[in-house]
Predict the 3D structure of the following.
Amino acid sequence: MNAITNHMPTADLQALDAAHHMHPFTTGDEIAAKGARVITGADGVMLCDSEGNQILDAMAGLWCVNVGYGREELADVAARQMRELPYYNTFFMTTHVPVIALSQRIAELAPEGMNTVFYAGSGSEANDTNIRMVRTYWDMKGKPSKKVIISRHNAYHGSSVGSGSLGGMSGMHAQGGMPIPDIHHIGQPNWWAEGGDMNPEEFGLMRAQELEQAIEEMGIDRVAAFIAEPVQGAGGVIVPPSTYWPEIQRICDKYEILLIADEVICGFGRTGNWFGSTTMGIRPDIMTIAKGLSSGYQPIGGSIISDEIAGVINSGEFNHGYTYSGHPVASAVAMENLRILDEEGIVTRVREQTTPYLKQKWDTMLEHPLVGEANLVGMMGSLVLTPHKESRAAFKSDTGTVGFICRERCFANNLVMRHVGDRMIISPPLVINESEIDTLIERAWQSLDECHARLKAEGLMVAG
Ligand code: PXG
């Protein structure tokens, strides 16, 4: 067997990759025909590929590399922990120091009354835990009929059978027998696409009240919980109107259903606070965490649980857990990542400096002829592309055609800015500085210009 290294020709690496590696959310034949981009290294906010390109990663990997790439401290902690105790489980009445330390630290950072963590290896696993946790909670409270979890169309909560069912992605539900029973979806607070003639505040209220209608229709004796991302991420960075979350909180309180905030993207500084729930002013009973918890340096996720739920679940045996629940290396790396976020004042800087700076630049993108709406909450933003701003029109071409062209232009200009349908989204590392933000905006503007020119040339600048 020959060693495969960074020094091999890109085409050889691509051929081997296509021959033996099936990629997530990818058409295998397409990747085989075009070849994957081979990322060979990264530092700060920049990626390097096998062709020597320096690419600004405005997605922080997959919304996760909050402290940026190349942090030696995280590598050192991982190596140290691997030497001391590379693995032990947290089943069968055992524990270890990294998981104790991390749990205590998360309890300090979490909102009041949330002091317990159940660990998983990812956000998907954590949301699977949540499904079983809330149903078991109500069972143990003598209300076994409370099983339904209400979620939203176009939500993303993971890709396992349970979490993918919670999510509201129709393309995912079409494959592999999802959703599982007793998951119900209501509308999303996407005013641009679905608000019609209402103003954003009226629309936000209307969408929140769909929760109340669903509870009334199904009966309160059947509904266990509502789950939502404080700001939808993978759905396209959809920022809810200001009326949305207060109304959702009112309804959860009134009917005493559990509120699960999926903080997998919003957590750990992304919105300018430790949790998106703080930014949105909500009081969840469970928070799903992953991604920024370790800045993606190790796979780790979990559920932060209210004292009330922990008290009930702890009174019996919860028959649930993963081999890697509370993995010592992942826990130690997460702990060090939280230290960096805290001691370097990264979360505060996002709130007080970086967000205002990026927002002022991001808003200028509205002057671009393609951009109808520019949203930003902390370090997550979206641009809605449109052929006609005043009527908030969608393109006549299939949804995503224009977004895909724009993403291709971004890639060509050494910028990772993703598309979701015809929305362009960013979620850069939280450590991005002002001159890097300037570069991001320059490359985004250039890419939009090139995209616009191509749409005009191909007759695609047409409303549908
Ligand atoms: N909840 C939310 C809100 C997420 O964004 C998950 C749960 C699942 O986490 P894991 O660790 O199981 O992937 C996520 C993940 C995209 C993209 O294309 C987004 C995610 C994952 C992969 C791709 O935007 N989010």
Observations:
- Residues 62, 122-124, 127, 156-158, 229, 233-234, 262, 264-265, 288, 290, 301 surround PXG (CB under 6 Å).
